[in-house]
Design brief:
mainly alpha; globular
Length: 361
C-alpha cells in the first residue's frame, strides 16, 4: 500500500522531487536571466535591439531543436544524463559570453545556451512526471512549476542587477555560477539508481518493477527501440492537445521574457525589473492554488482563463507608455496566464501519452 497524507491521498513530496524542483529553478534562473539580461547587455554595448532580437531567435531555435533531439534519448531511460549534459552545455555557453566578444561568437554562445536549456528543462519535466504518484500527477506538475515561477522573479532581477555592474559581463559569470549549483543538484537527483524509494504508483517505479517481473519483455522492448522507425519517431501525436495551445501562446510569453525589461527601461521606468517580480508572485500563488483545479476542472475551461489573462496583459502593455503602474500591473496577468497554461498543457500532454513516450512530449 502506498504511503499517504492525512487525507488518504498518495504522498506527493519525496527528496528526489524536491531536488528536481531545485534544479529546475537553477535552469530557469539561467534561462530567464539570460533572455532578459542579454538584450539589455547588447544595447548597453552599442549593438542595438535588432541583434538582441536575432539572438533571441537563435536561442529559441536551438532550444526547440534540442527538445526534439533529446526526446528519444529520454525515452530510452537516460533522463538524468540528459539533465546533466544539458546543464553543462548551458553553463559552457553562458561562460563563453563572459570571455569572448563579437557577433559570431555571441551567436554561437546563444545557440549553446538554447540547446542546453532546451535539453535540461525537457528532461527535468519528464523526470518530475516520472517520480510523481499517478493520482496526483497534475497537482505535482503544478508544484514542479514553482521552480519556473520563482525563477521569473529571481532570474531577471539578478540579471538586471549584474548587467548594471562593472564590468557588465558579470551577468554571465554570475549566471554561470547558478548553473554550477544546478549541476551539483542534478548529480544528486539521479532517481534511476534509487527507484525503490519512489512512490509505488509513479511511472518509473512501475516500469522498473515490471522489468524485474519479466526481464525478457524488457529486453525485447529495449531492442525494439533501436529500430530506424523508432529512432525517427521523435514526435508524439498524442501530446498535441497540450502542445498546440502552448505553441499558440508562446509568442506572448516569449515577448514577456525577452523584451519586457528592455521595453520598460526604454520607456524610462526606473523599476522595470519589478514586472518580473510581480509576475512571479502571481505565478507562485496560482501554482499553490493548482490543487483545487488542476485535476478536477476540465482543461478547456482552465485554459480559457489563461487566454483571457494573456489578451488582457498584452493590451495593458500596449497602454504601458501612459503609466508605470499599468506596466507593472500587467505582470499580474502575465503571471496568471503563464502560471496556469504551462503546467496545464504539460499535464494534458503527459496524461494523453504513455510513460515510455514522455520524452517526446
Amino acid at each position: 500500500m502506498e504511503p499517504g497524507d492525512k487525507k488518504g491521498q498518495p504522498r506527493l513530496w519525496s527528496p528526489v522531487f524536491v531536488l528536481i524542483i531545485a534544479l529546475t529553478l537553477c535552469c530557469f534562473m539561467m534561462g530567464q536571466g539570460l533572455n532578459s539580461g542579454t538584450s539589455v547587455f547588447l544595447v548597453g554595448e552599442g549593438y542595438g535591439a535588432a541583434l538582441a532580437g536575432a539572438l533571441a531567435l537563435a536561442f529559441s531555435a536551438a532550444a526547440a531543436a534540442s527538445r526534439i533531439a533529446v526526446g528519444p534519448v529520454i525515452d530510452g531511460g537516460r533522463c538524468s544524463a540528459v539533465i546533466i549534459g544539458g546543464i553543462a552545455v548551458l553553463v559552457a555557453g553562458t561562460f563563453m559570453s563572459a570571455v569572448v566578444q563579437g557577433v559570431p561568437l555571441f551567436t554561437v554562445s546563444r545557440l549553446l545556451q538554447g540547446a542546453g536549456f532546451g535539453a535540461a528543462t525537457t528532461a527535468a519535466s519528464t523526470a518530475a512526471a516520472s517520480v510523481l504518484p499517478a493520482a496526483r500527477l497534475g497537482e505535482g506538475i503544478g508544484y514542479h512549476g514553482l521552480g519556473q515561477a520563482l525563477s521569473m522573479s529571481i532570474g531577471p532581477a539578478l540579471a538586471l542587477y549584474l548587467v548594471g555592474t562593472d564590468p557588465a559581463t558579470n551577468l554571465y559569470v554570475g549566471l554561470s555560477l547558478v548553473g554550477v549549483v544546478g549541476l551539483a543538484i542534478a548529480f544528486n537527483a539521479r532517481y534511476e539508481r534509487a527507484w525503490r524509494k519512489l512512490p509505488p504508483t509513479c511511472a518509473y517505479r512501475r516500469k522498473m518493477e515490471a522489468l524485474q517481473e519479466d526481464p525478457a519483455a524488457g529486453s525485447c522492448r529495449a531492442s525494439s527501440k533501436r529500430t530506424l522507425r523508432d529512432a525517427l519517431n521523435i514526435f508524439e501525436p498524442r501530446a498535441l492537445p497540450g502542445a498546440i495551445p502552448m505553441a499558440i501562446l508562446c509568442p506572448t510569453f516569449g515577448f514577456g521574457i525577452f523584451f519586457t525589461g528592455l521595453y520598460g527601461t526604454t520607456l524610462g521606468y526606473e523599476h522595470a525589473g519589478l514586472f518580473y517580480t510581480v509576475s512571479a508572485v502571481s505565478m507562485v500563488i496560482v501554482r499553490l492554488c493548482s490543487k483545487s483545479f488542476m485535476d478536477t476542472v476540465p482543461a478547456i475551461k482552465t485554459y480559457t482563463v489563461a487566454v483571457v489573462c494573456a489578451l488582457a496583459e498584452s493590451a495593458m502593455l500596449l497602454a504601458a507608455p501612459a503609466s508605470e503602474a499599468i506596466f507593472l500591473a500587467s505582470g499580474v496577468l502575465y503571471g496568471l496566464a503563464l502560471g496556469i497554461s504551462l503546467p496545464l498543457n504539460q499535464s494534458v500532454a503527459v496524461k494523453n501519452t504513455p510513460p515510455e513516450r514522455w520524452g517526446a512530449t
